[in-house]
Every structure is written in structure tokens, then in C-alpha cells.
Design a protein that fits this description.
Helices cover about 10% and strands about 40% of the residues. It has six helices and 27 strands. It has helices spanning about 100-110, 170-175, 235, 260, 290-295, 400-405; strands at about 1-5, 10-15, 15-25, 35-45, 50-60, 65-70, 80-85, 90-95, 115, 115-120, 135-140, 145, 150-155, 185-190, 200-205, 210-215, 255, 265-270, 280-285, 300, 305, 330-340, 355-365, 375-380, 385, 390, 415-420. Strands 14, 15, 16, 17, 18, 19, 21 and 27 form an eight-stranded antiparallel β-sheet that branches. Strands 20, 22, 23, 24, 25 and 26 form a six-stranded antiparallel β-sheet that branches. Strands 1, 2, 3 and 6 form a four-stranded antiparallel β-sheet that branches. Strand 12 (about 145) and strand 13 form a beta hairpin.
């Protein structure tokens, strides 16, 4: 004869399953084994009342212990219920109140759970010591926040719909306000163009993101770039005659309004075909905009390199390999910089003339060495103008010695974009 049934607390597994376990003992208090048939019911009262649900199950019993899972309609669980258990071999036992374990009680405090997605409470929730660890969705700020015991800390802030009306100053301002922003097209409205918002591509990933695209160059051979965005292009660099598309990383020549309007401290060159090929540096102080920087003939050196170096740019296949350019690196990066201490580069559009090669934004050294190269964006090397170029001591501007000596071209770089932050 079965005499005893011990029930553990019942644990809910949302939305409709209940874990049910206990122990069966015989009249002598000895645990039973084998398979046994149970009749389990749910009632509205501890005695009498209405039976609202029942099932018959056969459970394996080992040393008296058994476990089964009951599937129950959610609607029934909204009321107080008592569990009845009967055993086929004889015996029935007092009803026990259906309760949830502490973990389940915690889950009940969620507003809703749908397929594993939690929808936190609204903005009206207060944050105090008793609610430490609570989360809420702040509808006013569009932010997911957690209570630290005294104040709400923002974990995530949703990016508002991108329109001219929601434009912030630049990509850095957007990244600061919305840290989860991703690479793409955004509206910006720099102070220098207040009232005239425009769209631009933002790199929100590299080195923490916040980079505003200013322009792009295809890196064509010096005699095939039509004078566009090379070292002497006054139409674009001086007169701001904008061309191309600065809302994407498509391979084309481009210069946009961010050139004259976005202040910056950091500058980046990035391959358009391979964005991992990049170089970034930081200036000692903020610059008003790249137009003002390029139109000054003064040499301005970087304070530090943020990532990469001249070798991590997107060089053409076969360039920058072997002895020579990769043997000795530059001493500095910055704007209006010479490749070396020589003469004969020819002047940039702003009048700067220094070294065998000089560039609007690039790298160089203050001496002469037969195992290094200098160059960069908007370079002029021994009179030849480039969108991007370099001069290798002893081999001119060529991709390598062979191409230079056979006069097959002097193109060393694939297409690059240039950004500020």
C-alpha cells in the first residue's frame, strides 16, 4: 500500500508547463521503485471546490523519487489552485497549494516576455535602493536604463529617425549622443553651415567611430587624374567646387561640404576597397575645418598616431614590398609635410614647396635616407602632381623600381577616402 507522497515546490516554466516532482513511500516508509500511475488534478479550493483540470500520467520511480511535466492552460494559472494526487495502487493525499519558486516569482514581475524578449517598464518607474538592478525603457529619451540604487544609468539610446530636422553637428556628435550608431549615412548640420543640413557617410566603427567623410580619391596615375583633387587643384581645394558622392564608400573622386564645415582634431585615410587598410593621427589642437588647414602653407605635425602607419594603407599589388620603402619609416605625419630635406618637389596649390615630395596630408622625414619614402594625399613629387603619391629615394614616384624605370606609370595607391573627427 502506498502511504506517503512528498511534493517539492512547483516551478513554472512560462508559459504553460509546470515541473511536478515528489517521493512515494510504502506503508513501512520504504521508497518504491518501478512505474506507477498517478491521477493529478487542480482544484479551486483546498477541500471541495471545482476541479478545473486533471490528467493521468505514468511515471518512472527510482528510490521513491519521480518527476513529470504538466502542461496547463495559462488562463487557469491566474487563480489560486490546489493540487490533488491519487495513486492507482491505492491512496490519495491532501491537496497542496500550487506555488511558484522564488525565481519564477521574479519572472512574474516582468511586464511581458515574448519569445525571450523582455519589454521593460515605462518611464514612470522610480530608482531607489529597493529597485537596484531594475531596468526600464525611458520613453522620453528613447533609452534603455538600469537603476544603480540612486539614479538611472543609460545602457542604450535609440537613434531617432534620420531627417534634416534631427541633424547633429557631425558624426562625432552623433556617436557621442548615440553610442550604438553603426556605419552609414546620416544628416549633419555643422555650426559653420547652420540652417543647411546635409547628408554624409559616417564611419562609426574605426577606433571608436565618429568619423565624418570629407572626400575620396581614386589614386589615378598623375597624368590620368585630369587634375582633380591633386596637389594643384585650386578648383576643388580653394574654390570648393564640390564633386561626387560623400554618402557612400563607392570608388570615385568626391569632395563635399564637410570639407569646409566640420572641425576636427583627428584625421584618417582609409581604403575604399578595403576599409581595414587605414591610417589615423591626432593633431595637437582642434582645426576649424580641412579647407582652412589645406589652404595654409604652414607645416603642421601630428601629436600622435592613433592607428596604422604609412605601410597599412591600401597600396597597389606589388608596391611597397621588398627593400626600400618599408625599410625605414617616416619621422612624422601631418599636413603640408615634406618627404625629406631635399628640394625640387614643386609647390602645392597653397605655395608649400619642400623636399623631393610634399603632400597636403601625409608623412615624411627631416633628413635624406636611401631606404624610406614620403608622400600622402595631394602630393607633388619633383613636379609631378598626385591625388595620392609617394617618392622613394632613388626610384622616384614609381610603384616599384621596375615600373619607374620602364615608365609604365607612377600609381602606388588604390582608392582612399579621407575623414575627420
Amino acid at each position: 500500500m502506498i502511504l506517503a507522497l512528498l511534493l517539492s515546490q512547483l516551478a513554472f516554466a512560462a508559459p504553460t508547463q509546470i515541473g511536478f516532482q515528489g517521493r512515494l513511500l510504502d506503508a513501512e516508509g520504504t521508497p518504491v521503485n518501478g512505474e506507477h500511475a498517478l491521477t493529478i488534478g487542480l482544484h479551486t479550493e483546498q477541500t471541495n471546490g471545482i476541479e478545473v483540470w486533471s490528467t493521468n500520467v505514468t511515471v518512472p520511480v527510482d528510490d521513491g523519487y519521480f518527476h513529470t511535466t504538466l502542461t496547463v492552460d495559462d488562463a487557469l494559472l491566474a487563480q489560486a489552485l490546489w493540487v490533488s494526487t491519487g495513486v492507482a495502487l491505492g491512496g490519495s493525499f491532501p491537496r497542496q497549494r500550487l506555488t511558484s519558486v522564488p525565481f519564477s516569482r521574479f519572472a512574474e514581475t516582468s511586464t511581458n516576455v515574448i519569445g525571450g524578449t523582455v519589454q521593460p517598464g515605462d518611464s514612470a518607474a522610480t530608482c531607489d535602493a529597493a529597485s537596484t538592478g531594475a531596468i526600464k525603457w525611458n520613453t522620453t529619451e528613447g533609452a534603455l536604463q538600469v537603476c544603480d540604487g540612486g539614479a538611472w544609468t543609460t545602457l542604450y539610446r535609440a537613434l531617432p529617425a534620420q531627417t534634416a530636422a534631427t541633424a547633429l553637428a557631425d558624426c562625432k556628435a552623433i556617436k557621442t549622443a548615440h553610442p550604438h550608431s553603426t556605419d552609414g549615412v546620416y544628416w549633419i548640420e555643422p555650426a559653420l553651415l547652420s540652417g543647411s543640413p546635409f547628408q554624409v557617410y559616417c564611419d562609426m566603427t574605426t577606433d571608436g567611430g565618429g568619423w565624418t567623410l570629407v572626400g575620396k580619391v581614386m589614386g589615378a596615375d598623375h597624368d590620368q587624374d585630369s587634375g582633380i583633387l591633386d596637389a594643384t587643384d585650386t578648383t576643388r581645394w580653394v574654390n570648393k567646387s564640390y564633386i561626387g558622392d560623400i554618402t557612400s564608400l563607392s570608388v570615385q573622386n568626391a569632395l563635399g561640404q564637410s570639407y569646409e564645415s566640420v572641425p576636427f582634431t583627428d584625421f584618417m585615410l582609409q581604403g575604399l576597397l578595403n576599409s581595414s587598410r587605414s591610417l589615423g593621427w591626432r593633431m595637437p589642437s582642434q582645426h576649424a575645418n580641412l579647407h582652412a588647414t589645406f589652404n595654409s602653407s604652414a607645416q603642421q605635425l601630428a601629436q600622435s598616431v592613433l592607428f596604422g602607419d604609412h605601410s597599412t594603407l591600401d597600396w597597389r599589388s606589388g608596391c611597397f614590398a621588398g627593400t626600400g620603402p618599408d625599410a625605414t619609416g617616416p619621422q612624422f605625419y601631418g599636413f603640408n609635410v615634406p618627404s625629406d630635406s631635399g628640394t625640387g618637389s614643386g609647390a602645392l596649390f597653397n605655395g608649400r614647396n619642400a623636399g623631393w615630395c610634399v603632400s597636403l596630408a601625409g608623412w615624411g622625414r627631416s633628413n635624406q635616407n636611401s631606404y624610406y619614402s614620403g608622400g600622402g594625399l595631394g602630393a607633388r613629387c619633383q613636379g609631378r602632381t598626385h591625388q595620392m603619391g609617394r617618392h622613394y629615394w632613388g626610384f622616384g614616384d614609381g610603384c616599384n623600381a621596375e615600373s619607374w624605370n620602364s615608365s609604365v606609370g607612377v600609381r602606388s595607391f588604390n582608392a582612399h577616402g579621407f575623414f575627420v573627427r
